[in-house]
Amino acid sequence: MSNISPEVEALVRNFVGRLIAAIEADVARRLHGVVASALGTPAAPAAGRRRSVGQSSVVAPPVRRRVRVSRELAQARKLQGQYLGALRGLKPADHARVKALAHQDGLVAAIKLAHSIKR
Q: Which candidate, 51, 50, 46, places its Cα nearest to that of 63?
């Protein structure tokens, strides 16, 4: 048998039970927020609720707002990604040729040259 008194054992069991309940509530709240954001629906506000004594005071990370990207910026990013993808796997000399052409004639011509070198 253990050397722990029944009073201490009851306190520990009570603490562990409250801790488990607080963790489960926090996990449920976080999962609800993740599912709501994945579905594109706003999560229910938690302002009207009162915390019980055993509830966790852990704060969820702030929700990032979506930044609107203009059509021109999206196209520029896509072109930059195509350029970087075309440079992958090129030998250093070919990489230098493509980079020089990109500075001289632009990314579209450089991407075409890089794809022709790879073939």
A: 46
